Amino acid sequence: MPPFLSTARAIGSLMRSSKKFNEIRCVSGFKPVLGRRDLFGSVIQTRRFLGCGDGEEGGVLSKVYEEKRVLGYSPEQLFDVVAAVDLYHGFVPWCQRSEIIKHNPDGSFDAELEIGFKFLVESYVSHVELNRPKTIKTTVSESSLFDHLINIWEFNPGPIPGTCDIHFLVDFKFQSPLYRQVASVFFKEVVSRLVGSFSDRCRLIYGPGVPVLENPNEQRL
């Protein structure tokens, strides 16, 4: 792992490089969620935040984002693409390595992923729970980067055959003040590109999707 830059120098570099993202807006489908219970029965502990701010409370970053979109692929197709964690290094932005390290009797598995972003290179272990084709939940279990990170994907039949109403939620908290500053600048872009990468992967594997009329309250991939 390359040595870390000083905090001031690193943030200055990120702020300068962020100019090319100036026109990117916060996705309209994102909204705060409080005390939500997911389909696995777990209560997601969250904190309120305003807009796309850094959501800081008590000196530690905590954010929750939701996004709902209708895509021109079936729930089964989207589920299979998101569930293929071992292939993430080939198409998910900033993922440099992805490997399944343990299969569990209940059908879940543990995967180790390495992410590289500017000066930051970190690896972590994520526990992945599957309920095909309805839900995927990933929970980081070993990480020096996150206090916690939970991703939940829900896949439901869309308004017309062959489409999917997708609901993506991410709940995370960084441990480092440096990462808090990075997230405040880049997180909108990170999430948008993350979700978009799965739509692009579906297009590559399955071909053009079923045409979907855009909803003014949603952003189409």
From TrEMBL:
Question: Superkingdom of this entry's organism?
Answer: Eukaryota
What's a Pfam family this protein contains? Answer: Polyketide_cyc
Please give the biological process terms from Gene Ontology that the record holds.
Answer: cellular respiration
Tell me the GO molecular function terms. Answer: ubiquinone binding
> Coenzyme Q-binding protein COQ10 START domain location, by residue?
72-198
One GO cellular component term: mitochondrion
Instruction: Give TM regions.
Output: none
Subunit field text: Interacts with coenzyme Q.
Record family assignment: Belongs to the COQ10 family.
Q: What does this protein do?
A: Required for the function of coenzyme Q in the respiratory chain. May serve as a chaperone or may be involved in the transport of Q6 from its site of synthesis to the catalytic sites of the respiratory complexes.
Its protein name is Coenzyme Q-binding protein COQ10 START domain-containing protein
